[in-house]
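User: Modeling request: complex.
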Amino acid sequence: MSEPILRTAGLTKRFGGLSAVNNVSLDLHVGEVHAVIGPNGAGKSTLTNLLSGDLSATEGTVMFAGKNIAGLKSDVISRLGIGRSYQKTNIFLTFTVFENCRLAAQSRTPHVLRVFHRAESFVDINQQAEEAMEAAGLTARRDNIAATLSHGEQRQLEIAMCIATQPRVLLLDEPLAGMGPHESQRMIELIKALTPEHAIMLIEHDMDAVFEVAHRLTVMVNGEVIASGNPEEVRASPAVQSAYLGTVGTVGTLGNLGNSGADENEHV
Amino acid sequence: MQNLNPYRLNSSRFTNLLLAIAVVLIALFPLFDNVFYTQLISKVMIMAIFAMSLDLLVGYTGLVSFGHAAYFGLAGYALALMGPKYEAVSVWWSLPAAMAVCAAFALVVGLLVLRTRGIYFIMVTLAFAQMLYFIFHDTKLGGGSDGIYIYAKPEMKWGDTVLLNLEKIDQFYYFVLILLVLTYSLLKRILGSPFGRALLGIKVNEHRMRALGFPVFRYQLASFVLSGALAGLAGYLAAVQYGFVNPEILSWHQSGTVLMMVILGGMGTLYGPALGAFAFVILQEVMSNQAWFGPQAKHWQLVMGIIVMLVALYLPQGLAGLFRWSNKKRAVESVEANHE
Amino acid sequence: MDAATLLIQLLNGLQYGLLLFLVACGLTLIFGIMGIINLAHGSFYMIGAYLAWSLTSLTGSFALAILLGIPLTIIVGMTLERVLFRQLYQRDHLYQVLLTFGLILVLEELRSIIWGDDPHSFSVPEFLNHSIPLTDNLSYPVYRLAISGVCLLIAGGLYLLIQKTRLGMMIRAGASNREMVESLGIDIKLIYTLIFALGIALAAFAGMINAPLSSVFPNMGSPVLITCFVVVVIGGIGSVKGALIASLLIGLADTFGQVYVQELSGMIVYVLMAAVLLWRPEGLFKRI
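Assistant: Request completed. Predicted assembly structure:
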């Protein structure tokens, strides 16, 4: 494959004596989905937070298009072209679906000085928002207040906002969480559609989805990478089987492990 | 918010109509030729500008400032100090200058206080206002606790012709009315622009705004400065009306009062706080009227305090909440209530 | 400045700081643990002072006044907590600010109705009304030393309470994770009520013991309140240790400031705060 667009080396995050993420190196390539899996508390969300700038790393580098972005603030990283979706839905609940996407799109062309023009009058922003809503399948719910959406629809909105910022890299934190089979399938199709143009890091518990879309697989346990590479090889590796997937042959039945209780997200 | 069907009588059109009617009524009021009430309404309008400036910060950017009186008072002192003692200054430069002083102070304070959040922010804005209070109260700069008189009100001339004589109550009244309408329109415009939408986004979910790539600090600072400048406009007008400035106009009681007006009226609506200013000033006038309530009227603050407490407990959307009859707004309200 | 004057200013600064600590400690505990910002905290300081004055006039004994006044204030406080503050636990700070601002107005007017608007002074209790001579013509009032001593005792007692007792442990736990504490069967509501009562009792007590020195006058709670806010911001919300250090810092800065830079002394406290915030936007110490 080509050069990785994002590469981490020795990424570490310590909270006091605890290493939530320890010496993690992985890379993301455009046109690939790199799935990161692991039990609860493995450090996956912390890793995402480190990449998006929500947390600053204790050690290590994150090279994005040749530049080290470790330590940059989250708004700077977003503007560089790295977008993320949140495991715990993080939308603007009191705005309409359209406004959520419009605001997300506005971040790329802020038009700050055009204070006398109505926000809805900017065709470029509107178009971006419409396209993002379309891709996420939310066009029908355009004028509904986000709080009135179903859980699955809110997750779709979560992704739509991410897409509206036109990132090169997508960090998706459990996009399928809490979704039923139809919605999950829809989301999987969306991820597949996005893959050619983007580099995607996917954190998920839904193994079926993971094996359907992932080109690469990394397994994390206790903050460390215990295996990384081709999904089939990783799945077959005995270390991974005993540490995470349980006994041989249970991959399919594990299915959707569901949402975590005390997730590492709580400490962030 | 987008309205797909422009022909339906939607709530914001109706509100605009009500506001237009109100402006016409206010414009007609001086014809009744009642000096006391004309001056009172002028005072209401000035406080309305003050309250709207705070609404920009509190209701639209989500920053609760408890030191907004600093800018209100600073403009008054700037006017008192900037010109010769017994001569009238020109409105043309003294008004922008006073506002610029406030904007500059807001810039400096904002750079410091916007590093804090939540309760720290509240306390820190309070303390900076106190700093200013002590400067004017304890030093000779501002005439100490006695304050300074403004012996000659500013004038508006074009060459040798006097365009506006602010000593005349009616002319002052219309001057204030025009500025009130301009302030409201300006703010409404700005808040409908991308910048304004970003502010609202910051209020609703600051974290996500940052994650989306907005430089949140800059937006907050801009809002803080604009808010301070507009408070300065109100303070300038107040100083012109009273002909006098003293440290009490910078006090935290003043900051608390204007915050109360914003919430009483309904924050995040702009017209709400104006309504709150009206309600508050009228309430104050009525309750402290000894002719009606006898000597006990001097304890009017007791009733005011109770009203404030009742509003805080039971009327979080303020008076403007009574005007929110669209389903969309009700849905928004129920979300806001559940997420507090 | 010679040694004796320096000593006097030092003692004054420490005494003022310790007094501030009593009031600020309540404020920071109430905010840190209950998440409530109580602007009316200064009003309890005032209530304490006025109760001390009127109960002393009534009973003739300062000690008795304190013994009666503290429980009275606690009852008032707990009633307010149950009736008013409880409704605002989950609400935005904005409404707490507003509610307590209204409460200040109400309490001030009630004070005006009950006790009038004239300032009143009353004397230090006889057995403490001595001075310790320092030089030929300078001496230091025993009463001030007594205040400092009492404050130190209370500070020590608080430390023991919070760090060494089961109640203290529950308080600290409640500060970190309210739901967990509740699910362990501990009545968090009771703890909140106790904290609130403790906080305002401290404020009222401070008002009482300082009343002979400050006299009682309208709006006497305001400057104390504002200064305590600064103390809490500098020290870090919820941190008793921070409140102590910040109080002493401010007490000394203010006292020496009045000597050296009279005109600008009112500002010193705020300049200090700005300096601390530039360095540490969340105060010097994290909670408890």
